Amino acid sequence: MSFNKVSQLLIGDTPGRSTELTWFRIGPQNATKKVYLQAALHADEQPGILVLHHLLQLLRAADAAGELEAQFVLFPMVNPLGMGDIEFGQHQGRYNRGTGINHNRGWPVLYDAMGAGLVDRLGTDPVENVRMVRAVLSDWVENLPRITALEQWRQCVMREACSADYVFDVHCDDDALMHIFSIPQLQQDMQRLADRIGAAATLLAEDSGGGSFDEVWPAFWLRLARECPDKPLPLPVVSCTLEYRGQFDTFDDLNRQDAENLYGYFQEEGLVTGKPIGSKSNAPAPTDLRATEYLRAPQAGLLAYCVELGDEVSKGDRIADLVLLDGDDAFVERIPLLAGTTGRVISRACTKYVWRNANIAKIVGSEILEFRGDYLLSD
Description:
Layout: E1 3-10, E2 19-26, E3 34-39, H1 47-64, E4 71-75, H2 80-83, E5 86-87, E6 90-91, H3 110-114, H4 126-142, H5 149-161, E7 166-171, E8 175-176, E9 179-182, H6 187-197, E10 201-204, H7 213-227, E11 238-243, H8 252-268, E12 287-288, E13 292-296, E14 301-305, E15 312-313, E16 318-323, E17 334-338, E18 343-348, E19 353-354, E20 359-365
Parallel strand pairs: 3-4, 3-7, 7-11, 9-10, 10-12
Antiparallel strand pairs: 1-2, 2-4, 5-6, 8-18, 9-11, 13-20, 14-16, 14-19, 15-18, 16-17, 18-20
Helix pairs in contact: 1-8, 6-8
């Protein structure tokens, strides 16, 4: 049995800006599987913190009862740098103030950093190949530069995630139903997860274009395997982003149930024993992320929605009206905003004042939308 709280000081780049990163390590140290979970990478997204708070209690009890078959590493608030980003009484937290980069974008392309040097080291034993590659990856992460607070933070987080068999990055959307982002190669794993957590959609793309945290790990293994087709190299990590509804869906009872459902998934995966808990549903089958439309505002205005979350719409249906706020027709005319695909509305904007090109709805369809291009994220 093992329940440990770990902290690391992140030394600030200027006086008064140092902070502490805290995480928990739970379960047997000699476990053959490792599960990594983090919440609030986008620090303005709070539901995940409460979900992991409740999950932490469940795992602690399971550890005391000897029911953990894996080691769990939880960062309930993984981005203390972003948590301190408060300006004029409003919490921001999505972007790094120093670089302007989204905290969940631009994570390293691991194969470009070290993959070529591994090609000749792979053998005929898949288990040994995974062990060797993970050792090299761990050494690379350990030697990353850690001068700035951002570098210290990223290195610490990657150190824990790089050896995990499961990497779950817990987020939320704006005003949304629960959904999942992952890769096509994990479709069956994601269906089991979606059934357990009650996801309204599972959106798959091997490369969504932004270098997001959850894609870093499988991308490395997939690229290495493609460069060495004659060597046995399985995909040893189940990785995804879990979108726990919207920013305002931080409620004790709701997020406790979320934690129980997620715990039930880990039980189903054989990572936790004991009496089964949580519920199970029949979630929709995963779809290609390129079939999801991000409906955007053509100009600034005030939104008046015509649909609710979960509504099924057809191409050309009115999703919202945009009340004009300037020009000759200001405060008199509305512009209808129409669906560009047939599907289900799973997100809307909380803030009804929007500006040109703001994302105002996410519609999950089945038809590939060629206009989506290579960048498949909302920002």
